[in-house]
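Write out structure tokens for Gastrula zinc finger protein XlCGF57.1-like.
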Amino acid sequence: MSNTHSQPSTEEKPVDSFETGVSDEDGVEEEEEDDEDWQEPFSDFGPETDDSDNDWKETRTPESGVNSECDTEKKSFTCSDCGKQFLHKREKPFGCNVCEKRFRNQYNLNRHTRVHTGEKPFGCGVCSKRFSQPADLKRHTRVHTGEKPFGCDICGKKFNQKIHIKRHMRVHTGEKPFGCDICGKRFMWKVYFKTHMRIHAGEKPFGCNVCSKRFSQSGDLDRHVKVHTGEKPFGCDMCGKRFNQRIHLKKHMRVHTGERPFGCEVCNKRFSQTGDLKRHLRVHTGEKPFGCDVCGKRFTVQESLKRHMGVHTREKPFGCDVCGQRFSQIAHLNTHTRVHTGEKPFGCGVCTKRFLQPGDLKKHMIVHTGEKPFSCDVCGQRFKRNAHLKTHARVHTGEKPYGCSVCSKRFSQPGDLKKHMRVHTGEKPFGCDLCHKTFSRQESLKRHMRCQIVNHNPILRKRLQTP
């Protein structure tokens, strides 16, 4: 009986691989063509795919020039009805003369040979792109037709390749089959795993042609280039604001929706950004990861460290357009500008008094509440403001940080030094409205005014003279 067979149809047995560049996973799949760790995508699939139910295949005599290391006499099965002989599907009697890779049948060997010859006999009638396998052409055609025959049973998303839906299912199952041996981090897709490994290797293969900055991922380079081009392709439909990255637009939309998906497990406070939650958690942990190299002072956020560095550098890059006064922080400039505009945006809800700064409003509210949150550890006396407590503490410590440049006398408070300096200058800024006598201290003027009131008021003077 003849064992000659026609070549199997590729339409009846599709190859479960995918064409490079065809994407359905929003930019993820296009980088994942080696996700399943295939060394040769089309070498071992075809007539014997995962869809085949046959455990045995008909024996075919190797053609001339094909190496065979299989003993078909000892490892064959003969059908008792028709006499045909079959080999177990695990045997690979057909070998490649170039790379010595072996295959289960001549069909797969012929397909594999095109890897070495570069032959692409199957062409697309739409875009003239050519392929080495008919199944690749079939999948490519879906790019033009828009056909997506593979659907997810959970979310209904459709894909044009079977391998894409297999990978998509990891989104639902949470499976992360690729793990880093160095830090233990795991990934759903091999392309992400390979990109992650560049962090440990320090590899940055993608460079910017403008500023020569280098990146470990091509996507990071694409986003960086927009810094130079000024391109902002993502726009908000509500306010029109535009962004150079889609993720920035997504975060911005929470301003309009009020969404705060990130919550603190300690105090239940919620945030719209993961970074805000991360910074907030330092309030509970006391962590201060940012330290000053000059004085050692530490801060919970990097912005605070940057502002602090101005204390050491004395740099004041922000200038007022009205009076020319300069500031180390833009927030201080914005506050100062209100001096010229008269703006007082912070109002008291009790007495309607308004203030330039929120800190001033906070201090003012103590007037209504009577609260004295600052207490002395030595005597227990309480104060409305921390500055008052610091001044009071010098009573116990004996500290006198303010010294007179004329006589070297020292004082615990700057106000006392200011009063003392009038002894040397002869300044008397406080004057009586009745007799025009002047005094160096306000307390002296008050005592004088009491005497003047008595002398100019006969009724009051008579009462004082009555025993």
